[in-house]
Design a protein that fits this description.
The complex is a heterotrimer of chains A (632), B (98) and C (521). By secondary structure, chain A is mainly alpha-helical. Chain A contains 23 helices and three strands. Chain A is globular. The model of chain A has no long low-confidence stretch (mean pLDDT 87). Chain B is mostly helical. Chain B is 80% helix and 0% strand. The longest helix of chain B has 31 residues. The relative contact order of chain B is 0.13. With 521 residues, chain C is mostly helical. In chain C, the strands form two sheets. A two-stranded antiparallel sheet of chain C has the order 1-2. In chain C, strands 3-4 form a two-stranded antiparallel ribbon. Chain C is globular. The C terminus of chain C is likely disordered. The chains are: A mainly alpha (632), B mainly alpha (98), C mainly alpha (521). The interface between A and C is large, with 56 and 64 residues.
Amino acid sequence: MDPVEIIQHTAGGVIGLSWLMIAIPLLGATILLVLGRRTDRWGHLLGVAMSLASFVVAVLAFVELLGLPEGQRRQAVHLWEFIPGMVDMGLLIDPLSIAFALLITGVGSLIHIYSIGYMQNDPDRRRFFAYLNLFVSAMLLLVLADNYVGLFIGWEGVGLASYLLIGFWQFKPSAAVAAKKAFVVNRVGDFGLLVAMFMIWTTFGTLAFGGLTPVTEENPTTLAIGLLLLLAACGKSAQLPLQSWLLDAMEGPTPVSALIHAATMVTAGVYLVVRSGAFFFPQGSGAALAVAIVGAATLLAGAIIGCAKDDIKKGLAGSTMSQIGYMMLGAGLGPVGYAFAIGHLITHGFFKANLFLGAGSVMHGMNDEVDMRKYGGLRKYMPVTFATFFIGYLAIIGFPLLSGYFTKEGIIETAVQAQPVLGWLAVLGAGITGFYMSRMVFMTFFGEKRWEKNAHPHESPSVMTVPLIVLSIGSVFLGGYLILSNRLMDWLAPAVGAPAVRPEFHFTSTTGIATLALVAVGAAYAWYKYGRSEVPAVQPRGSFLTTFARRDLYGDAINESLIMRPGQWLTRLAVFFDNRGIDGVVNGLAAGIGGSSGRLRRLQTGFARTYALSILFGAAVLTGALLLVGNI
Amino acid sequence: MTTHYLILSGLLFSIGAVGVLTRRNAIVVFMCVELMLNACNLAFVTFARQVGNLEGQIIAFFVMVVAAAEVVVGLAIIVTIFRTRRSASVDDANLLKY
Amino acid sequence: MSSLWLPTLMVVPVLGAIVVALLPKGSTTLAKQVTLLVSLVVMVLTLVMAFQFPNAAGDRFKFEATYSWIPSFGVNFGVGVDGIALVLIALSAVLVPIVVLASWHDADGVKAADGTVVAPKRSVKTYFSLLLVLETMMIGVFAATDVFLFYVFFEAMLIPMYFMIGSYGGAQRSYAAVKFLLYSLFGGLLMLVAVIGMYVVADKGTFMFPELVGAIQDPATQKWLFAGFFIAFAIKAPLWPVHTWLPDAAAQAPAGAAVLLVGVLDKVGTFGMLRFCLELFPDASKAFTTPIIVLSVISIIYGAIVAIGQTDMKRLIAYTSISHFGFIVMGVFAMSQVAQAGAALYMVNHGFATGALFLAAGFLIARRGSPHIADYGGVQKVAPVLAGFFLIAGLSGLSLPGLSSFVSEFMVMIGTYSSQAFGSGALTVAAIFSAVAVILAAVYILWMVQRVLNGPTAEPVKAFKDLNAREVWVLAPLIALVIGFGFFPKPLLDVINPAVSATLVNVQVENPGVAEKGAGQ
């Protein structure tokens, strides 16, 4: 079944005011940035208030949407004429966008609150909140816009916020480099989105979602558009081959990693695919298959990277790549997959934010140490952090009945049926997840203390632990609520279409049991390696495979040797060509003219008699010429 | 008759021209220029007589007036140069060059 | 019916220039104040005029005024504006007061914190009266409806700019000024030949633009005349490979003059292509489209790559401009409504965005005494406001969506991609290639930002003071415009679109595909 028609919103109500969701945090960011230091004392409170206000608007809009009959649940709100004759700025309030809006503002607000505590001692805390507000605003524009241009503005807006926040501690060269890298790699994806927009406009004459019609048959144009959109999604969502920026992005403060590089921004690629799904990724098409393949490849790559990282944040970053790989895999499977992909996206937003904030809480207590080899036995010292982190851990590995279990199982189940090879790769990925997440838990909270001398681990203040508790509650219950009896699928159906056959959730399917078994094996192996035996304080050399994973599957090395070095070489060549080649010709021409005139002027000897001779000679020539012509 | 006058005029002009080109002394060069001017005058007058009107003679007068004015300015310059440089050679006054 | 608006706009700055020049010796502050006042008056007048612009169908040119100038050759002092000329005049009128404020101390002898001389001490009065004279000429060149008058302003503009670079610039100023002058004169000469040729061939006894449109039919003649005009405009724009004067001139000019040079003077080139090349020689324009599109794509990519490799901030910005001018030229010759409107909009947006970037870089250089990127580091820490403005201006340079350059760049690219003017193939490929510049732009801007603003604070940078009130007033309006037009480009586009339609009618391009779609959505 196709998505329902988008109708123009006319009546007032909260939906008509949904632009406030974007405007409120934007206003917050503007105030904090323009007034600057004057707002240092209360800036963080304003930031939190703006985010919460936006959340309230989102909830109200959600309630209003719930009250509408299913056929009217896609409401376009016209804002202003943007580029006359091409595109108008407007918002699309539908089940998909509102689900995202709730996630962004909800989890976003929790992370805002957490940051009050986390950034307590940073002199630039106000600026941090300004950027967070900017991010929330841009991300909401991304998901709420009713056309590709608005989406693109939000898309780059979150890229900018991500750039600013990764480089928040810009005085560290590594942070500045990581920020730039994230932006530039994302731009490669943006290139795809731009060209896709050119093609959409040229082919369909519109850039609004409402103007496109769902297709069932793929043609070369939609395939090309689909692949270009996939490129964009790969950039934003750190999927292969544009994954390399995400690990470096961990240079930013931890709440940023939680909000932007785990819960929301990096899932924008999934949103893009699902939003464009009916138009460019019809079920069973080549474009959709490409999405699924990229997802499956990345979920394995991310998991493998996660296995070898000693930096707790980088380990989680690898895991994020991997989990988004699951979502992409789901998004490549058509309407059945969409519901699970979005479901996993939402639950992942909760448990991954939970894990990241937990990691931040650990770092907060350990003098910002990120090396897990210098942790150990922390569960007694930070009980709340441990408890919530452990719940997040159980959720991500898919422990039965927790959030991650339902959504991940859904994706795997669907994938095994639609694309068996990719499906079984996803099962394998789940096993690896079991290993690397258990490794992380064992290294951090169990075993011997391997702390630095000056470490005094302590529990974080309640402004940080309360968001953790809220997130962990979501990590426990949300998945079951969304997936059982297909609640999310039915809710999303007006926006993304409903599958032909409604799936039933089986607790005892073959794949489900196989997955659980593999996860158990992974966890057990992790316990054997890191729980039972001692963790060496210095990173052991490791096998070839370990090195391979530690170096991010040589992603950076490949980028460096294939793109960066030739690029630098090309740049130097071009500069040389410009200075010596083109400008050389110009200056050479000038020098040539100058030189020849320098020679010619030697004729001016200063001897009057020479001049007289030349006059005579000239007169003779003239006379001769006139005689020759014969006019005399 | 006319031919004879013209040959004389041509001879005088040539002598003057050679003088201008070969002599170094400014006064001599100057006199050679005068010689060339007067050779032209002779030609003008000859043609006037041949044609039978006064125009050539009028031009001859013009030339004389111009030559007189030129002598005034030219001699003054030569005298000044001689005073400053102790030389009347035209080759010594060669500063105005490239 | 002749309107006094444009003649007034042109006379006021000249009168101001005379007043400034006649002020008693030593009254430098007064000279600056008078200049600022005059330029503000012109800005207000221009804006009032712009708001009165009748955006309706009817005559192509509004606010027309024609006075006979050299009757024996049929030369008129003819002025009038269409939408494109209007926004460019407004751009000039808005930039001049900002430049005046920005160059407040440029002629006083600028010294950096460590005593390095950034700009020599010269006559203040001359500098500011040159600025006002230049303003008259900038307005005149966009307003001229007489081709000969246009030519006169086109060439005369060089004179004040030559002196501003040559007397007030950096260490290599005379080399840069002479290079700028000779390059431009060479182009101007070719144009003069073409102008006279056109007068003779058209045989209308007038240079008035509306009468000359469609006067020349012979394709071969069109091609020769087109070449004369186009080479002049390509040098002015500047288009690869005749671009090398710009980095030198922009790097050596004082920051304020560089803004006018890149922000306004260069636009005369692209404006001329759109107004004169296309409309006077439609057949030749179509015949030469492919090579010109190729040149513009080379400019886009090449400018970006060379910009990445620059070590001098102002040169870097100049090369980014070469890349951006490539976009404008591509938009002009893509021959579609969207692309040309985008190109016209780009001219305005680029003026504001690059202006802000040049001025912010100028403020940095005035503090440090060096244009070399390597001499900076960690400015963000000591001067956050300056760093913030620099960053936003830079982001506009990389066409971040939400900032004004994005709208125009997007329109140029999408308009080129979708242009059906010559069968879609070549233009489609050109648009895709030009989109690569999106990636390169991120590299050149962010790499510069990283090296200048980020990282540990370099020792000499620690003494930096943040922006003072004057400098904030210079940058804040520009940034406000950049952000404002990023979200609301409609006012500009509403004025530009009818003018572009008129152009396309004169070029006689069949472009039904896009127009139909625009109406259909």
